[in-house]
């Protein structure tokens, strides 16, 4: 199952590399685009939930790494959501595992 990393930049300028066990994140986020913090959380929640369910379908159990990544994103986002229009920028995608080596930068 191809996995991917997606790099984001938070409103305070800090960068974070995030993990997904599936390429489904490409359906929810776009490199070079910014999202309001709440929208980013909603989109990543949807993508990582689907990704985890794909793992369940293939291996018989949900992906705990996807759940942990979502929890980390939600925790980080909580400090920005009250500020209103703060935005998260999706900087790049990187496929790992099967078909590794494909990067999708800005």
Short description:
With 106 residues, the chain is of the alpha+beta class.
Describe the structure.
The protein is α+β, with helices and mostly antiparallel strands. It has one domain. 39% of the residues lie in helices and 26% in strands. It has 2 helices and 5 strands, in the order E-E-E-H-H-E-E. The chain has helices at residues 37-59, 64-81, and strands at residues 3-9, 15-20, 34-36, 87-96, 103-104. Strands 1, 2, 3, 4 and 5 form a 5-stranded antiparallel β-sheet that branches. A hairpin with a 6-residue loop joins strand 4 (87-96) and strand 5 (103-104). Helix 1 runs antiparallel to helix 2. The longest helix has 23 residues, at 37-59. It is globular, with a radius of gyration of 13 Å. The chain starts with a strand and ends with a strand. Mean pLDDT is 89; it is low at 101-106.
Q: Keyphrases for this structure?
A:
disordered C terminus, five-stranded antiparallel beta sheet, 106 residues, alpha+beta, single chain, 5 strands
Relative helix content: 25-40%
What would you call the structural class? Answer: alpha+beta
In total, how many beta strands?
A: 5
- Structural shape: globular
Count of the domains: 1
H/E element order:
EEEHHEE
Strand content: 25-35%
Please, what is the average pLDDT? 89
Radius of gyration: 13 Å
Distance between the termini: 25 Å
Q: Regions with pLDDT < 50 over 5+ consecutive residues?
A: 101-106
Total helical segments = 2
Major β-sheet profile: 5 strands, antiparallel
Summarize the topology.
Blueprint (H helix, E strand, L loop, with lengths): L2 E7 L5 E6 L13 E3 H23 L4 H18 L5 E10 L6 E2 L2
Antiparallel strand pairs: 1-2, 1-4, 3-4, 4-5
Helix pairs in contact: 1-2
